[in-house]
Structures are given as C-alpha cells and as structure tokens.
C-alpha cells in the first residue's frame, strides 16, 4: 500500500476522476464511491499477482459452494485487512470528512441471512489470510431476504433491493458465462459399445459471473467470491411483441432470470420448491463447469490429477447437486467411464453439514428432480 501522502494524493485524484469536481463539493456518497473505487483498484492489482503465483506454483484451489455468503459491508473490512483503517480515518478527518459516517453509505449485500452465510464468509476470510487459493461460489441475488418494517404494530416484509445503485466491488466476467440446462429428454446410445448421452429439448439459462475480491489480513492474497446471475439467452420475442403481446414477449426472459431474483423464495408451494431446486442446480452447475474448465486450461485432460489440484467443498445440503453434476460432466462431456469418474469425484468433493434435524435438510419430490434435471436424476 502507498504511504500516507501518496494515499491522500491518490484519493484526491480518484475524487477528480469519479466525481469531476473538488472534494469539498462532493456529496458523502460520492466521497465513499471514490474511496471504494481506489481500494478496488488496489485489490485488482494484488489479485493479478495472486493468480500469477498460483499458476507458477501449481497450487491446489478450494471452491467453496454455499447458498449464502453473509459478507457484510466490505469497505471497512478491506481497510482493516490492508492495515490502513486508522490512516484512512486520519486523512479523511484532515479533509473534513468522518470515516464512520462514510462507511454508512454502503448497503449490506443481500447475499446471506444467518449463521450459514456468516460461516461461509468467515471461511473465505480465513482462507485468504492463510494464503490458500480459494473461490467462493453462490448466486448474485438481486433482492436479499427482506427488509423488516413495523407498520401499525405489524411486521411488514419489504423487498431488499440492495443492487439498485449498483455494486462498486463486483467485476462482471461475461467471457466466462456458461450455459445451464433444465428439463428436456435424455436419450441413451449404446451403439458403439459405450454409453453416449444425448440431451434434447432442454431450456437454457445463461449463468453470468460477477467476482468480488476477498482479502486476507496482512497478506498479499486476494481470493474471489464468484456470484452467478441468471440471464435468458433470448432477450425478447419480437414476433409476440409486434403482435401487441408485450407480456408474453418477455415471458421466457422473466422465467429464466427469476432464478437469481430472491434469496430463499418461499417453498410452501410447488412453484417455490421448483424455483429453489432451480437455484441450487443453477449455481452448482455453473460453478462446477468453471472449476472443470479452469483445471483443464492449466493441466489439460489429466483428470486423474484433479483431486490433487481441486477441492469442491459443499456448505450444507443446498449445493449437493454439485456431486452428480461433476459426474455428468466427466462422463458425458469428457468421455470418462463411470468408475474412473466416481473415483475422481470422491477425491474432489467434500461436505459439511450443520444439523442432523431432518426438517432442516433439503428434500425434493422425485418427479420434480426427474423433470428439471433429468440427466442428474439418472445418475442419482
């Protein structure tokens, strides 16, 4: 990190670049945004060095799959991890601003709700602090669980639209978008003496990744939290639109993108159960695909090496479909036989559960699994 005077100079330059006016004329939100942009650039530089060292050393990487990451407000955490919180507070005081007031400008990311998500966030902090390469994987929820308000003595649940002003910390990686397939039909072909699978008539949802840096304390390690946003491959049906059927024209797009709308949709009805199963397969499949692609890019099709270089850790039951999904990819897409694929998957995947109460475990109607993820169902 730069020294005090250099930091102050860079911050004022960031103000000029992001706000196009003097510090004294900036709103508190503008001052926060300029500081956050400056810290983000610092994280990006350290991240590039992290990737270079990992590639040179051939280090193993942990992919930590969790339905939640309760990371909290990030600016203060970054300042502490970088060891510059006190210096930043002093510099802002010299400029006539209060750091604590500035930190209040940041919205809590709507990515978690309780202990499960806080545990996942703490694990990511610890992995980075211990200089262990890792990537957290989850969903980029557009709305968090809810905001609670008391109206006339009653609790009211309001949408938590935490992304309405954007997220200064995230970096979109459209080039690493992957496809996730739902529904359709599975055809088995044994004509060559080996099983070949054809998956037809499926619906495609695009998984677009957004990366958020995770800093370790007093280290030169920056890991990443990868959040997947659901997009439809088709933005609008122009034929329906031109016939005046405006709602129908947007229907397919909305049905795809609802997957990443809300953290924990109500599953007291079949539509809610279907959406939650879609969410869990969506981010598990996208994350496994990325892990496989990243491994193959570095080591080629040397799949027996994978357990030595990749660990997929499943945080509670929600991402459990990652296990048969990895089997599917190794068998159907990479051409491995069942026994070899199973041996690799057993070596790669690990699991933590947080309760033994049956009512807390994810359970799904068999017909629903068969309908939504038919190839995964056949593997199970």
Please compute the radius of gyration using only Cα atoms.
23 Å
**SSE order in H/E notation?**
HHEHHHHEEEEEEEEEHHHHHEHHEHH
Distance from N terminus to C terminus (CA atoms, Å) equals 50 Å
Quaternary form:
single chain
How would you sum up this structure, described in words?
The protein is of the alpha/beta class and 380 residues long. It has 15 helices and twelve strands. Strands 1, 2, 5, 6, 9, 10, 11 and 12 form an eight-stranded mixed sheet that branches. The protein has a two-stranded antiparallel ribbon with strand order 3-4. Strands 7-8 form a two-stranded antiparallel ribbon. A hairpin with a 2-residue loop joins strand 3 (147-151) and strand 4. Helix 10 packs across helix 12 and helix 12 packs antiparallel against helix 13. The protein is globular. The termini are far apart. The mean pLDDT is 89.
Give a summary of the structure in a few sentences.
By secondary structure, the chain is of the alpha/beta class.
Keywords for this entry:
380 residues, globular, 12 strands, alpha/beta, 8-stranded mixed sheet, two-stranded antiparallel sheet
């Amino acid at each position: 990190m730069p020294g005090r005077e250099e930091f102050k100079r860079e911050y004022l330059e960031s103000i000029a670049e992001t706000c196009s006016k003097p510090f004294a004329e900036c709103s508190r939100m503008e001052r926060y945004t300029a500081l956050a942009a400056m810290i983000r650039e610092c994280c990006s530089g350290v991240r590039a060095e992290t990737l270079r060292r990992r590639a040179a050393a051939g280090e193993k990487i942990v992919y930590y799959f969790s339905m939640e990451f309760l990371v909290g407000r990030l600016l203060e955490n970054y300042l502490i991890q970088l060891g510059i919180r006190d210096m930043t507070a002093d510099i802002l005081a010299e400029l006539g601003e209060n750091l604590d007031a500035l930190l209040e400008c940041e919205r809590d990311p709507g990515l978690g709700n309780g202990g499960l998500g806080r545990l996942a966030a703490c694990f990511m902090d610890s992995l980075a602090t211990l200089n262990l390469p890792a990537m957290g994987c989850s969903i980029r929820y557009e709305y968090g669980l809810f905001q609670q308000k008391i109206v006339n003595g009653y609790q009211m649940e309001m949408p938590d639209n935490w992304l309405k002003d954007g997220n200064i910390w995230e970096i979109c990686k459209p080039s690493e978008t992957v496809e996730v397939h739902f529904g359709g039909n599975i055809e088995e072909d044994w004509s060559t003496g080996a099983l070949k699978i054809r998956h037809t008539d499926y619906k495609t949802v695009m998984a677009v990744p957004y990366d958020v840096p995770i800093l370790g304390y007093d280290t030169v390690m920056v890991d990443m939290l990868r959040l997947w946003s659901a997009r439809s491959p088709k933005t609008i049906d122009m034929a329906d639109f031109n016939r005046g059927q405006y709602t129908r024209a947007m229907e397919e797009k909305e049905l795809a993108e609802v997957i990443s709308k809300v953290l924990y949709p109500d599953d007291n009805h079949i539509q809610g159960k279907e959406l939650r199963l879609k969410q869990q397969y969506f981010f598990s499949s996208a994350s496994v695909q990325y892990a496989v692609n990243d491994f193959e890019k570095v080591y080629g099709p040397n799949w027996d090496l994978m357990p030595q270089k990749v660990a997929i850790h499943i945080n509670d039951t929600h991402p459990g479909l990652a296990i048969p999904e990895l089997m599917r990819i190794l068998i159907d897409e990479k051409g491995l036989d069942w026994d070899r694929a199973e041996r690799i998957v057993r070596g790669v995947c690990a699991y933590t559960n947080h309760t033994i109460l049956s009512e807390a475990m994810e359970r799904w109607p068999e017909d629903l699994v068969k309908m939504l993820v038919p190839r995964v169902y056949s593997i199970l």
